[in-house]
Amino acid sequence: MSERKVLNKYYPPDFDPSKIPKLKLPKDRQYVVRLMAPFNMRCKTCGEYIYKGKKFNARKETVQNEAYLGLPIFRFYIKCTRCLAEITFKTDPENTDYAMEHGATRNFQAEKLLEEEEKRLQKEREDEELNNPMKVLENRTKDSKLEMEVLENLQELKELNQRQAHVDFESMLQQYKDYEEEQKRLAVEEDEREMRAMLEQAQARRLLDDSDSDEDPTQAPAKMLTKAKPTDILQEDPEPQAKRLKVECWERSVGKLSSRATLSGLVATKRKLDHSTASGARAQNRPVGTEASNAAKPSGSRMLGSSSLSLLGAYSDSEDSKSD
To answer: Is the pTM of the predicted complex or chain greater than 0.70?
Structure first.
């Protein structure tokens, strides 16, 4: 079997290449090629935008009777992606670019249009100067005036640069640094003044509080002396917590003494305790009188009954204080 991928072909001894018939193809024959859009364009039929780099199956042909320095110019046919309208463009070897023919308009070619306009104006000027000597003189005069204006502007720029060259940037930076340091120093001094003022206010407030606290103990004895009721000592709170609890238990069990004026003289001090108990004992040992005598002194009996309860409470308080 022969090879599948043949590199060398067999030529018989009687092979004559001149006898091979040549195909006569038309010069404007078209080929189907795959290409990408060389520039952004917009379809004139439907207004669809076709962006650079979009791929097409295009038909390619050689432009007849057109060439640039012996280089052939090719034309490409593509179809719009929306309306299938035919768009054609060809190569432009003179400008190393592509030129739009019909079917669409090229976008974003402002720079190219500007260059073309400059070339057109330059060509028109050369044509005018070729046939009109006066036009040449006018153009030279305009060019000289324009050159003088440019030189004046350049001189102004040079003078401005010279004025700026005399400026010492190091001194400017140093002045700016000094200014910043001065601002920082003023800010620190302001903070210190505010802190000093706040401390003075706090000290003055503390002195006022201390003076008020010194005046309170002097006023306290006066208030203590103004207590005329003997039962007021039961309402004071300098007692220990345990004693206060015992007093509350006693008040719950026996009862709390009334603060009315009729019972204000029932509470006796400890040094008068023996005298009062002796008088109470004598009153108990005294023989019972008649009903008239008992009726004549009803208030005395009530006072004795109530005083006995108060005496019993005083005894219990005195024992608690001794034990403490």
So the answer is: no
